[in-house]
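step 4 of 6: structure.
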Amino acid sequence: MGLSPAMTIARRALLANELLISVTANNIANANTPGYARQRAVLNEATPQKGPFGSIGKGVVVSTVEQVVDPFIEARLVSTASQTRDAEVRNQMLARLEGAFPDLEGGGVGKAILDFFDAVDELVANPQQLGARQAFLAASGNVASEFRTRAGEVQALQRDVDGQLTATIAEINSLTEEIAELNRQIAAAEIGGHSSNALRDQRQVALQNLSRKVSITYFGNGDGTINVQTLGSITLVSGASAVALGTALDPSNVGLDGGALTKFGVVSAAGGLIPTGNAIGGGELGALIELRDGVLVDVATDLDTLANALRDAVNAVHTDPSGRDLDGDVGGALFDPAASGASDMAVLITDPRKIAAARSANPGDNQNALAMAALRDAGQTSLGEETFTSYHSGIVATIGIMARSMQDRHELMREVEQQLSATREAVSGVSLEEEVTNLIKFQRAFQASASLISTAERMFDELLNLVR
Amino acid sequence: MPNFPRITQNLALSFLQASVARVQKDLLEAQRQVATERRVSVPSDDPASTATIMRLRADLAKLDSTAKTVRYAESVLGAQDGALANAGAILERAKELALQHASTLISPSEREAAAQEVAELEKAFLATANSELAGRYLFGGLVSGGAPPFMEPNEPPLAPFDPPFDPTNTYVGPTDEFAVRIGAAESMSIAGPGEAIFQAGITALDNLRVALEAGQETSANVSEVEQALEDVRSGRSAVGGKLRRLQDRELEISSVSATVSEILSGEQDVDLAASLSTLVNLEQVLSATLAAGSRLLNLDILDYVSL
């Protein structure tokens, strides 16, 4: 047995510690890189050599550099991202919807309805005065204007949501293409059996981002690649290929503003769209669809119901055959009966003399105005026997309940995501204390290995001097 | 906080950030409440209270409007009360004249002078019956503007189609009453046709004048004027009753408004003292959190080891 094995062991130790220091340096460098999972070099004792005195160790070898990850936590993070983003988008949109109903700030439809009935009371007291009639017309116009404004806000919100759908689909396509490309690179890099850690980190980040856009599941193919599917089993990524989603305007699905809404689906080979129904949902996309086709439509419908109930009740009194305006004529419709709801509510009468406050030719007669004033406290059949103001309070309170519920849900999901991120950080995050301690340890080992080489070298020199 | 196997710098930092963000959010909410003095500014602050707040505000608006109507009705009825007091005074004077000229010893010239006075009283009485307030005749029911509810003699007739003046049937106004709403299910007539109040008076005064102009003694007119006076007193009594009801209603509205305002305040406003206390407390919590975070972040292994 000579000095050569000792030199080999020292050289291997030197190389191994050099690699350990490199891995530590890489960990420190990526301490703040999003999605980075700390790495560690796995050391194994080199296969010992059998000799006359038994097995003699041959030093250390680095078997691999692996990521420290918990696949269960990674999967939970991906699925949670979808729910968090779903709640976040709904929270943002409901906050905007809530802002469109400034009733607690002393404005909005509710205040306009109260002002309208105050003007009716004024008309009751002074049916002959043009000033009171003008004020009544102004209050009527204000009610119609408020209904149009609020309906317009809901329409604009629905159009924004629809526009965002297109952007979301484009982002989904971009992310699925990125994942497919990373799949290809990972498969190529891992042919030798070594894990491509950096690429896997990038893919995990892309998966999490995709999950924010749409709910997904994913599973490995055994060659380092993964397949990604929606919860409804539509494949988005299969190994190195991505399935493209597309959007188009759907004339059969009309929005609150009368314009066509966006439809989406899988792009067929011929370039058309294959509808996916409910198979693609969750995340940002699911939230947007639910808001566009559910919540906003419901609110708009409630506003229409209220506007139509007010229009019909007031018009019924105003056009009563016994009603008379200042010229002794039967009153015409105050609000446009041809209006479809809140969005196009309008006042038809412009001449204050044409307000039918009377039920006789007498200009001082206020009996029709009295009948109109009684509407303030009257339950309306079309509103489930609620009054106009209580029905409107219900609309605003319902929006408040939805907004509050989604604030709480978003808060909860953010907490859950933070907790999961913290758990991941505890497992996969880089601890500078740990790395610096390791660095000192590896530095000392490196120094010892170098000393070993130096000692072996001196021993060689001694031997050579013997024969000189 | 869960039992993490390892605590990295990023983990400590994210916990610090989350803690600071939580305190800052609460602090912002406390500042908003103190600045606006409102506990509920948007429906999501308290959805359950939102419906209550809006209902209470609607109730307050309705009460305000009703109070306005009640005050208007009080002004109309107050004016009627004044007019009826005046009408009563006229009839009292007429009664005095009728009593004075019931004797056969009164000279013709005295009767002529009295007839002239009664003629003036008659005009004044008619003018009182046709009193207006802001364009509305007080005793004309629904009539407003245009011809007065009680016909006045035109001498000579202004136009050929002027109806002849008949002192026993002067009321030409509508028979419907002018009513306003003083509650959700309560309306009150505040200007009825004044025929029942004034017609007897007009007739009595006219008869007295005719008797005096004819040089007749007026003992027969005394009871007629007294009866007319009774009609006016009766009318004034009804007006007084309505005024008392309106005053009661105004007090009721004021009391209910105060109660509703108090409940509304309880629903939407903050307890300022409690909010300020919370604000100060949260400022201290934020300060302590930042101080703790600062100490944590200043700990660095590189300060203790040399590589």
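step 5 of 6: annotate
 - The CA atoms of residues 25 and 31 of chain B lie 10 Å apart.
 - The radius of gyration of chain B is 39 Å.
step 6 of 6: archive
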